[in-house]
Known about the structure:
By secondary structure, the chain is of the alpha+beta class. The protein has a single domain (104-372), classed as Beta-lactamase. It has helices spanning 6-74, 78-97, 141-151, 184-192, 197-212, 221-239, 261-271, 275-281, 352-372, and strands at residues 113-118, 123-128, 133-134, 158-159, 181-182, 259-260, 285-289, 295-299, 316-324, 328-337, 340-349. The strands form four sheets. A five-stranded antiparallel β-sheet has the order 2-1-11-10-9, with helices on both faces. Strand 9 and strand 10 (328-337) form a beta hairpin. The radius of gyration is 41 Å and the shape is elongated.
Amino acid sequence: xxxxxxxxxxxxxxxxxxxxxxxxxxxxxxxxxxxxxxxxxxxxxxxxxxxxxxxxxxxxxxxxxxxxxxxxxxxxxxxxxxxxxxxxxxxxxxxxxxxxxxxxxxxxxxxxxxxxxxxxxxxxxxxxxxxxxxxxxxxxxxxxxxxxxxxxxxxxxxxxxxxxxxxxxxxxxxxxxxxxxxxxxxxxxxxxxxxxxxxxxxxxxxxxxxxxxxxxxxxxxxxxxxxxxxxxxxxxxxxxxxxxxxxxxxxxxxxxxxxxxxxxxxxxxxxxxxxxxxxxxxxxxxxxxxxxxxxxxxxxxxxxxxxxxxxxxxxxxxxxxxxxxxxxxxxxxxxxxxxxxxxxxxxxxxxxxxxxxxxxxxxxxxxxxxxxxxxxx
Length: 377
């Protein structure tokens, strides 16, 4: 029998060896790519971990930034910082005001309550019954002016309304009528120059509604004025007044409306942060045209200011007079000489003449002391 199948059988193992080699090659290639894949996966994991940690650090940094931002938010605003600086200044002034036992000037005056303070040096120069309770009359309006400047904007419109009916008979007036409209500068002068009680009530009603916010639109004139008076008393406490209580914005006599000469000095010193008040109190007169077109002329009752007055004092700068039968003749007066500003608070003089002569004499004595103690010529 012919051996015809020997060659194919001998060739089969050779074909299997060829396949195995090819497979090995393929396996090597696959292994190489698998290794590349694993390496890529490993690199990907590293990148992922890096990003994860980076994100965690970013969040931490954001948290730090947020904390810093929160701390920044907690810092006082410029307005709050200024207010705190004013309070600190007032605390320092309070120490000086309280030193009334050893004032350098000794002088006999007819005026029952009288103090003088050197603003520039921060020194009490004279004090007579400075803590005695007195009626302030229209010197009250220095506080009224403070609240006007503190709460009204320059473009605030003051419209005379029903509060006009609250003005007492016998009041000093600025010539206002219901419906008249004034801006802040006008209402301030109407309060300070002619000592207008009508202007004081108009200012009080307007500011009272501002203080009340949205509720103010529904307020009656009497409620708005009372809101203003409440703020007068709050501000007096804030300033550090010791024995002051207000019942009205104009100073018309009321047994429960009182202050002291030293408290009025505290109020006047506080008012100096608003230079518009001092500027208004320095005017001898003003011609004004209201926003509604009416014309008026106001004269200042401070006899120290007009050059043609018998009591003219060339160094006088302002500020506010007051008079009722119960309060007597009062004045808060300012003067400047030798680079020093002096404030006099005179309460309860029996006559106009005593008020002015005592004030002038005390200013002269005060400036002698200033000159002898380093005042600038």
